[in-house]
Amino acid sequence: MFRADYVLAAIVSFASWQQFERFAQALNTVVARHDVLRTAILWEGLPHAVQVVYRHAELVKEPLEIVDEGDALQSIRVYLDEASLSMDLAEPPLLNLRPVRVTGRTEEGQCHAVLMCHHVIGDHVSLDVMMQEVVQILEGKEDALPAPVSYRAFVAHSLDSQRETDAQAFFRQMLGDVDESTTPFGLMDVHGDGTTIRASAQLLGVALSQRIRERVSKLGMSAATLFHVAYALVLARCASHDDVVFGSVLLGRMGGVAGADLMMGMFINTLPVRLKLKGVSVLEAMRETQALLMDLLKYEQTPLAVAQHCSGLANGVAPFSAILNFRHSQGSEEMTERSGMMIVEGRERTNYPFAVFIDDLGSDFALTAQTDSSVVEPERVLEYVGCTVQRIVEALEADPGRRLLRLEILPSSERKQLIHGFNATQAEYPKEALIHELFEQQVERTPNAVAVRYEDEQLTYEELNARANQLAHRLRAMKDTSGASLVGPDALVVISVERSLEMVVGLLGVLKAGAAYMPVDPEYPVDRIAYMLRDSQAQVLLTQKRLQQRLQAAAWSDEGCDLGELLLLDEESTYAGQSEGDISRNETGQTSSNLAYVIYTSGSTGLPKGVMVEHRSVVNR
Q1: Residue 354 in contact with residue 198, Cβ under 8 Å?
Q2: Kind and range of the H or E element at 120?
Q3: Among 138, 494, 501, 593, which residue is least crowded by beta carbons within 10 Å?
């Protein structure tokens, strides 16, 4: 059985079981009136899926048996969080109203239920029409209902092939050179089942809503235009693009079909909107967006697949993963109240990982964000949208010529966190410590823990410390012809080894001996190795037996290069007879201002240059 997941659901309540029965009976009457509400989608044994209208279909009213989770509403919420909001497309009606029975509870008076409707048979306007008819029936005015308008007329109108040809030309002009998808926060999956999506809602505020209406009225535009501009700016910031594409959900009832405003069925359609924001003022963005939305209405029933195929992206790659749905919701609450049903909580899932819904309530705007909360929380997106809308209104009021991309979308709390919170890096740290001393402290804490592992070999902290100490004692015992020590503070010891345990032993051993190490990649060209050896004037080189000849060849290729004393880190004689004890800074004479290492630049702009790094610079990181 195929089950689809594009389902609208709501937790609703009635004052009594009798009121629930009256509402359900009225809703069944509405189902009987409208062909689209008795629709099923059949495909088994057929060459392609077909839409079939049944003569009779009744609401599913079978009670939902739900486990008790503390109280009735919480139990329903938990159930819906865990349940798959899906419906069998082959079983009409794709609309059901199921009363809830919580295990072990006997609810007196109030009746809770779950109302579910699949998007394939209805949209936001359809639900409003449905509620209006339910109210008329409940109020005894069924005879005054207008004759239902068949959804077939709209289907025939939307299949006009010439209209699709014109639409293709329009969308090719809009999207033809789009070669990169707009994906806020890297969210790309537009085929998800909605299970990772979380929603959050808030009111914009009456005062700001009134300012919006005043501004757009003076410009002769709609509030929808301003919200589209704001959403584009949010996406520009969240996707790091100044040329953005997103989906706009269109009402779908403006195409000239008679009676479409009273017709039940799925009319809404998502189509791409592309806005180029670079160098555009706030006022210019408003005008360009208004014009684009007006043009888009001519093609509002173009299949999304047709529009997306007109982009410059490879077939199957969506040009956007974010959508905006602006809708008018005035009067919905009044009809719901008159019906005797109270909507406690709505549930709607979308396959898009980043979506914002704007409901025009008349006096205010309600904002809802749905996002993949594992990547970005919907509350954060709501803050971005609210802040951006306010900045656009302020610009239209005082400085409409201001560049749109100069507007700030961050709320003050996040801006403060970014500028001050994340930069509050003051912390106490051992300013005079040496790198190897910090390592030795860790050895004391976890001597038997694994410190380093390479392929099938490993060393504990205690073993690594002992081995590095043996190397350090060996280095300190090395003298030049005059009897002076070859290693000490700020003296360089070259280490040129392949990735191995010996590499870590070598680095620590050099530091413990009181010197500074200088890494030389054995894969470097011979002339680069020779240059680094000559330029550093290091007198000791640590390497491995298999690399010895290559390094000697590099030194011999340059007359001014002296290889110095050479120690093999993978030769046991290097460590034989040496003490495993730590060497104190009193013995080495080191301080935190002495060199820890020298590393050479790539030399891409000339000869490589050695960068000197002190112990205190590393410890401060």
Answers
A1: no
A2: none
A3: 593
